[in-house]
Batch of 2 targets.
Target 1
Amino acid sequence: MSLIEKAGLLALHRLDPEKAHDLSIRALAAGLAPLPGAAFTSRHLETEIAGLRLPNPVGLAAGYDKNARIIGPLTRAGFGFVEVGAATPRPQPGNPKPRLFRLTQDRAIINRFGFNNEGAQAICARLAARPPSEVPVGLNIGANKDSTDRAADFAEVARQAAPHADFLTINVSSPNTEKLRDLQGARALAALIQGVISARDETGARPPVLVKIAPDLDPAALTELAAVLRDSGAAGVIATNTTLDRSGLTSAHAQETGGLSGAPLFDRSTRILARLYRLLDGRLPIIGVGGVGSVDQAWAKLQAGASAIQLYSALIYQGLSLADRIARGLDARLRAENTTLADLTGSEADSWAA
């Protein structure tokens, strides 16, 4: 990490977390943050997932650039792919503030934003106007809090976004919209995915549709969900979203309501990832997210069954350059161990799933 980045992080951590988040977005938009430029790539790192060609397997998770305001800078920040959003059909303010908390001792974050965003129309216009890049950019899609037909909301965002996004992610796993996770049930999820795919197909565009799942599923629910995913037409899975579990936390904000992300999520999300990998039996690729903050943790996610990984909370503590550092570290380790991403994926799934 450069001295400039260290100083920037120290300054941001003196501010209220949500104000710091907004300031970081403005700094990137203004070109004030040092960026590596093109994503680091090599023959060891280039990969394809759900039909998307990635220069490297290190992506940015949804939630940082909620309104797609800094797509250009993010595609020059070292990520192999970027996910923006979540977008809902209509703009909504989200939950009351404060709604974002740093758990510095635990290297974690709790948020209860509640899908605050400027609405699909504004976000999709920015997706359409984004600069050309070899880094795929996808949109996380959601439903309005006051919607009477949430499945229709997902379909509507998909209809607007499909011509402009490289992939779409159905977010049924945020804990911050009441009863949203109910859509992970087999019958509701199957209908939801089909509705999104049908809406996408109406546009003539065919970006792959992914599904983001929660880390708090019990074995029976995970088995049921995997069976739906195998036959749904979805092109992949993102495992996992934030957790409601608070085990082992020491920070003062530990009991705030909302979704927990960061280092404490790593083991829980990686176990779910590995179990899902076994249940899917190679039929769908999985993007692993949850607690990744080092090359070793990225490596472990891949071993557990991920074909690619995403970062978010660790960036708050280690800076945006973490993406480039992890990509370069993975490349060095793949070379040193004379292996490939394909051979690494799932190589320790049985151990993690136990």
Target 2
Amino acid sequence: MANFAKPDVPRFSVDVYQNEYLPEGGREVNAIVTVTATGGGTIGKGPGAAAAGRRPSAAVAVMVDCSGSMDYPPTKMRHARDATAAAVDTLRDGTRFAVIGGTHVGTEVYPGGGRLAVAGPATREEAKRALRRLSAGGGTAIGTWLRLADRLLASADVTLRHGVLLTDGRNEHESPDDLRAALDACAGRFTCDARGVGTDWEVKEVTAIASALLGTADIVADPAGLAADFTRMMETAMGKEVADVALRVWTPVGTAIRFVKQVAPAVEDLTGRRTEAGPRAGDYPTGSWGDESRDYHLCVEVPPAGLGREMLAARVSLVVPGPDGTAQNLGAQGLVRAVWTDDMTASTAISPQVAHYTGQAELAQVIKQGLDLRKVGDFDGATAKLGRAVQLASASGNADTAKLLAKVVDVVDAATGTVRLKTRVAEADEMTLETRSTKTVRVKK
């Protein structure tokens, strides 16, 4: 394990868990890389900047769905206004912020004029007065909301940029390509948490937004729960201390990366997001960090070697953009090794961490497959997939997912994955399971 400990930034550490032993001819190396950030809270503008006693500068854009469907029932719009007001109240003094009303276009609700307000007692009250004037009407074109948020957030010279997006419906007034283009344009410029309220929105749209912008996605089935959810979201955003952290993976000649996935606290495949970072090195974005720990599954293919040989399969480090735009290494790194042996006991053992997260990734996959099969009427296929999900959730101790599965299937035997599909399932329960399917649990100690 190596760590980075500088007075004004969080301390990052990297731990690697793996079975480094391969049989003769073995080529696949798997490792779980745990990245932990602790003790931050005083970072200034730019990595390593001294700003004792201060949190990093931040800008936040809250995007509120104001389409016509938000009037059904009328209390939904009221709860959305209240939730946004609660989020504004949670902003740190000095945070730049804006509120955007979302319909078939994005509209500046507060402060207006292409500006961001600076959070303080007066601006919070002004923002809440502006929120009272919000009303529902129009369509839904989420890409326009995101592009407006990007323009506003980009106007601030701050360390952290974050968005919060709320929708209650499907993105019906722009094409999927338009939304994808907006996400591609915004990726890496700000992070964004996305929430679906009620049950008339599309899970895959909301989760795709959060995935592309390295945020969280969730359902708030009852609009009355929005204020509490928005408060928690904003508290988490205000706790972030360093932005744009990337996992840098270097591999030697002849070694190829098969995949890089975040596996805790949620499954997120980062493989396709690699940007080249010099000879045989690539960066994988991880977004903004506060005091927290995350796990990543790294799988590399190494060239075959003779028995008794040993090699460095990969070196993992952490980088952030420096003041001049070049990457600044945070000092923490971990090494992934490969050792060829004829000891079958050693070479066939699976690292408990690798086994656990392989199961968690499969759990997320089979839940989505099972729900998709159920929607198209393939009940036998759905039963098999969701039964496997129950088995995996039980074996790994993922109690939250097990409870959500129990609302969709009747569990006969969790250990064997024997289940029966429920004949009646509340739409909110099915959407909750789908939205939260990627949430994982850490390895049992």
